[in-house]
Specification:
With 260 residues, this protein is α/β, with parallel strands linked by helices. The protein is built from 11 helices and 7 strands. The protein has a single domain, classed as 3-Layer(aba) Sandwich (Rossmann fold). Helix 5 packs across helix 10 and helix 10 runs antiparallel to helix 11. The longest helix has 14 residues.
Length: 260
C-alpha cells in the first residue's frame, strides 16, 4: 500500500490529527479495496485525517466524493485552537478538493436530509453514550445495503487509563454499536484493535437494538442538543419511537456523576 500519510509531512508542524497512523492506514486500505463512490466523515478536527483520505483518493485516481462534517467551527481542544479543517487548506496545493465538501458548525441531524447516500461512513466523535448512537439513528436514510460504517475508539476506557474517573461519567458506545448492527465485522489485523467497522447487510438499522445501547449512563453534553436530535429522529421513525427514546432519556440523562 502507498504511503498516503506522507502528505502530512508537507505541513510546517506535526499534524494534530486525532487518528493514529496505524488506524489511518487501515482506513486507507478499506478505501483502496472497496473504492467508495461517496464517503462521509463525521468528526474532522484539524483535518489531518481528512487530508490523508483526500490524498488516498487522489493517489488511487478515484472520483470519490468526500463530505466531512464537524459540529464545531474551532477545535478549542487543540493547541492554539485552530479552525476545523485548517490542515486541509494548508495542504490544498497537494490535494484535489474538487469533490470535497466541508460542513462545519452543524450537527448530523441538521444536515442528514441534504447530504445523500454513502458507501462508507467514518465516525470519530464523542465515543460515549448517547453520542454516536444518536448520529447513527439520524443516518438511517443515508445508508444502503453494503455501506461500510467505521467507528474509532472502540475501547476508549482501556486506551486512556489516566482518564478513568472521567470515563466513568458515561458509558463508551462504539463497541456496543458494532455489536448491535447486522453485517460483516471488520477489524485491523491486531490482537486488540482500537478501531472497527461493519459492512451493513441491510439498508436500515435495527433501531430497537440501538435503543438498548442507550440504556446506559449518558454523557450530559447531549442535553444541549436534545431538540435537534429528537426532532430529526421523530421525522425518521415516528412518534411512537420518539416516545420510547424520551423515556430512556428521562431515566438516564442525569445518571453521570462526579467522582472527584
Amino acid at each position: 500500500m502507498k504511503d498516503y500519510l506522507s502528505i502530512l509531512n508537507k505541513l510546517e508542524y506535526k499534524s494534530q490529527k486525532s487518528l493514529s497512523d496505524d488506524n489511518l492506514e487501515w482506513i486507507c486500505s478499506l478505501i483502496e479495496h472497496y473504492k467508495p463512490k461517496r464517503l462521509l466523515e463525521i468528526g474532522v478536527s484539524t483535518g489531518g485525517s481528512t487530508s490523508v483520505y483526500l490524498n488516498c483518493i487522489k493517489e488511487l485516481g478515484l472520483e470519490t466524493e468526500l463530505v466531512s462534517i464537524d459540529s464545531e467551527k474551532i477545535a478549542t481542544y487543540k493547541p492554539n485552537k485552530p479552525a476545523i479543517g485548517s490542515e486541509i487548506y494548508m495542504l490544498k496545493d497537494y490535494l484535489d478538493l474538487t469533490n470535497f465538501n466541508l460542513i462545519t458548525g452543524k450537527l448530523v441531524p441538521e444536515v442528514a436530509h441534504d447530504i445523500g447516500i454513502f458507501d462508507m461512513i467514518i465516525i470519530d466523535t464523542v465515543h460515549f453514550i448517547p453520542g454516536e448512537v444518536l448520529d447513527i439513528l439520524c443516518l438511517k436514510n443515508n445508508i444502503h445495503k453494503g455501506t461500510i460504517l467505521i467507528l474509532d475508539d472502540i475501547n476508549i476506557e482501556s486506551r486512556y487509563p489516566n482518564l478513568y474517573k472521567q470515563n466513568l461519567n458515561s458509558t463508551s458506545s462504539n463497541a456496543m454499536i458494532l455489536s448491535s448492527l447486522n453485517g460483516e465485522l471488520l477489524f485491523p489485523n491486531t490482537i486488540f484493535p482500537e478501531i472497527g467497522g461493519i459492512i451493513l447487510e441491510d439498508n436500515s438499522f435495527d433501531e430497537t437494538k440501538l435503543l438498548l445501547c442507550l440504556c446506559h449512563k449518558w454523557n450530559s453534553d447531549i442535553l444541549e442538543y436534545k431538540e435537534q436530535y429528537f426532532s430529526q429522529i421523530e421525522k425518521i421513525y415516528g412518534k411512537d419511537f420518539l416516545l420510547k427514546l424520551e423515556v430512556i432519556y428521562d431515566k438516564y440523562k442525569y445518571s453521570n456523576f462526579n467522582l472527584s
